[in-house]
């Protein structure tokens, strides 16, 4: 595994919440972070059919544009009763002409589970794949998973995305009811970061 030896890292995202989560996880390492949004970089088209494929697109695009190592993630929810959907299309399900509407996406997911008469528990998992890319084209890949189940009705107003219907294994609350920083300690992203940290040791 190639070690990260610099002091500057680009986080290939326009999502301020995601940047804050990553900054918190990397705080012990004294790395200066910049985001795509801060640097005025465009969001590349995510044309792959896997989380790792899309994370690679974003990480390599940012590394090439800046000449700095870049970290990207691609994440989403896979629902077994929907044959793994929405998966890499997790955010797409929320797209509207006026921006993303995750309540609409959640309602679609539940309606499709009901239409399929999916058995209980309606198992699902949040997946996160981190890719750390260097300007010379090298990358390291770190996958993370948080298993759980989809529940109804929606519960909680913390978090984002599909959090109000996702109850992680071992808990009786949804991600939407969980304190943001507690969620960060156990989430799919935390699982991936625990592996990524080997690069910073």
Description:
The structure is a single chain. Helices cover 30% and strands 24% of the residues. The chain is α/β, with parallel strands linked by helices and 201 residues long. The termini are close together.
Percent helix, as a range, is 25-40%
Shape descriptor: globular
Query: In angstroms, what is the radius of gyration?
Result: 17 Å
SS summary, helix count: 6
Keywords for this entry:
single chain; alpha/beta; six-stranded mixed beta sheet
Give the helix/strand layout.
Layout lengths: L7 E4 L4 H11 L5 E4 H4 L11 H16 L3 E10 L15 E2 L2 E2 L1 H14 L6 E12 L5 E12 L15 E3 L11 H7 L1 H9 L5
Parallel strand pairs: 1-2, 1-3
Antiparallel strand pairs: 3-6, 4-5, 6-7, 7-8
Would you kindly provide a brief summary of this structure?
The protein has 201 residues and is of the alpha/beta class. It has helices spanning 16-26, 36-39, 51-66, 102-115, 180-186, 188-196, and strands spanning 8-11, 32-35, 70-79, 95-96, 99-100, 122-133, 139-150, 166-168. The model has no long low-confidence stretch (mean pLDDT 94).
């Amino acid at each position: 595994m190639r070690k990260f030896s610099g002091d500057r890292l680009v986080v290939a995202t326009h999502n301020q919440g995601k940047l804050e989560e990553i900054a918190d996880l990397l705080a012990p390492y004294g790395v200066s972070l910049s985001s795509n949004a801060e640097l005025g970089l465009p969001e590349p088209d995510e044309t792959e059919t896997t989380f790792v494929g899309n994370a690679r697109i974003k990480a390599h695009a940012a590394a090439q544009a800046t000449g700095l190592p870049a970290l990207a993630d691609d994440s989403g929810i896979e629902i077994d009763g929907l044959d793994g959907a929405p998966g890499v299309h997790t955010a797409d399900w929320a797209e509207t002409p006026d921006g993303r509407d995750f309540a609409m996406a959640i309602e679609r997911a539940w309606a499709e589970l009901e239409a399929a008469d999916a058995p209980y528990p309606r198992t699902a998992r949040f997946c996160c794949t981190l890719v750390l890319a260097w300007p010379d084209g090298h990358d390291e890949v770190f996958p993370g998973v948080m298993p759980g189940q989809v529940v109804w009705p929606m519960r909680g107003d913390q978090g984002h995305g599909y959090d109000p219907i996702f109850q992680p294994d071992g808990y009786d609350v949804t991600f939407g009811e969980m304190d943001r920083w507690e969620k960060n300690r156990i989430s799919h992203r935390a699982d991936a970061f625990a592996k990524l940290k080997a690069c910073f040791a």
